[in-house]
Amino acid sequence: MTASYPRVLSIAGSDSGGGAGIQADIRTITNLGGHAMTAITAVTAQNSEGVTAVELMAPEMVLAQITAVMDDFGVDAIKIGMLGSPDIALAIAEYLKTLDGIAVIFDPVMVATSGAALADDRTVAAFEKIIPACSLVTPNLDEIERLGGEEAISRFDAPFLVKGGHGAGDLLIDRLIDANGEIEHWEGSRIDTRHSHGTGCTLSSAIATYLAHGEALPAAIEKARDYVRASLKAAPGFGAGHGPMGVPQI
């Protein structure tokens, strides 16, 4: 189901600096005309220079947040970001089996922009239980390697948007791939800024929101990429490290 004011649920961690995670998702979903709902998996203490503390939610609390909004408001699309533990990941995987017809975008967050690890090997292994229920998985180049490389995509019945932002050079390529090979790709020049915290969160939540508005997957990806690029250019310059992106006019 889609709606003129779509309901988008973000399952992710909280970023005290406001650049990524739940805060980036709420900002993006709201700016793109959706109603943002949340299930917080972890509370992090972080700023533009790094993560200094992480407190995980109990899996039961994560599920309680999800069912509270699902049972009352309903959901048109779900974005999944930082999960933090294998127990949370496995609980989410089991819950997703109960859903039907809802777009699920999974950003397999493993490392913060600052370099802090946000998923251990057991959590990454548990991601494989989530992927079959997804409409799209959005790993960057480092994350796809930890998932087993592009050849691992053939094991899943889900498309992957392999993001090229961590690649070398000024020309970056994002590739939409499924078990049969590349479906489509998008090219773009690198935007010269250190204020790129939250790009993956913003992209995945934007794709979820555009899908909830009724866009087809390639169009949702293209519009979301444009939104991220506009957000990078609108960065306010906060922080001494990798600061948050801005909120573009749309």
TrEMBL record:
GO terms of molecular function: kinase activity
Key words, A-Z: Kinase, Transferase
Keyword Kinase: yes
Alphabetical list of Gene3D superfamilies matching this protein: 3.40.1190.20
Segments passing through the bilayer: none
Entry's EC annotation: 2.7.1.49
Domain annotation Pyridoxamine kinase/Phosphomethylpyrimidine kinase: ranges: 15-245
InterPro entries: HMP/HMP-P_kinase_dom (IPR004399), PM/HMP-P_kinase-1 (IPR013749), Ribokinase-like (IPR029056)
Entry keyword annotation includes Phosphoprotein: no
Pfam hit, one: Phos_pyr_kin
EC category: transferase
Involved pathway(s): Cofactor biosynthesis; thiamine diphosphate biosynthesis
Protein name per the record: hydroxymethylpyrimidine kinase
Native source species: Parasphingorhabdus litoris
Origin organism lineage: Bacteria, Pseudomonadati, Pseudomonadota, Alphaproteobacteria, Sphingomonadales
Protein's gene: thiD
